[in-house]
Amino acid sequence: MKKLTILLAVLALLVSSLACQALTGGRGENPMETIPSVDDTADPQPAPSDEESEGFDFSFSGDSEFPMPDDAKNIVDIAGTTNYQTSLSLEEVMDFYRDVFGKQGYTERPILTVVSDTTFSMVFDGDPSGQAVVIQGVDLGDGTTNVNIRLEDV
């Protein structure tokens, strides 16, 4: 009886092993052998030139179509959305945009203005594109406000 139990256990291990090979492709190769080696003597890939990256619409230089306070920093403009940080408070940022856009003839949509202790969102109409200017701010808690401004179909 003991011999039969051992024989059945060996047979079960053999069937399990074959099943595992079937599930993994059954090649039995070491997958690490198929990875190409790194050639340290090869020239590194050159960074894409400005001509090659024309399909992307982004800037880290602070160029933006939107007005920003003088102390704006960490300015990122990607696909028409500008994000930056300022030392102005939430209320000061809101007052800044009310002043700047008011002088340009834009009108705020008060029904879409939302303010909490740590965030705000406001929308202005009047952009020549016909889209609304959406401005959102978040108090980062370190004396800095993060501001996001973009055009949207609202």
Biggest beta sheet attributes: 8 strands, antiparallel
Which second-level CATH architecture of one domain applies?
2-Layer Sandwich
Approximately how much beta-strand content do the residues carry? 25-35%
| CATH fold-type name of one domain | TATA-Binding Protein
Shape: elongated
Helix-strand category: alpha+beta
How many runs of DSSP E, i.e. beta strands? Answer: 8
Low-confidence stretches: none
String of helices and strands: HEEEHEEEEE
CATH secondary-structure class of one domain: Alpha Beta
Measured as a percent range, the helix fraction is 10-25%
Defining traits:
single chain, 154 residues, alpha+beta, TATA-Binding Protein, eight-stranded antiparallel β-sheet, 8 strands, 27% strand, elongated
Describe this entry's structure for a reader.
With 154 residues, the protein is an alpha+beta fold. The chain has a domain at 58-152: 2-Layer Sandwich (TATA-Binding Protein), CATH 3.30.310. Helices cover 23% and strands 27% of the residues. The chain is built from two helices and eight strands. Strands 1, 2, 3, 4, 5, 6, 7 and 8 form an eight-stranded antiparallel β-sheet that branches. The chain is elongated and about 95 Å long. The model has no long low-confidence stretch (mean pLDDT 79).
Annotate the secondary structure layout.
Elements: H1 2-23, E1 58-59, E2 73-78, E3 81-86, H2 90-103, E4 107-108, E5 114-115, E6 119-125, E7 132-139, E8 145-152
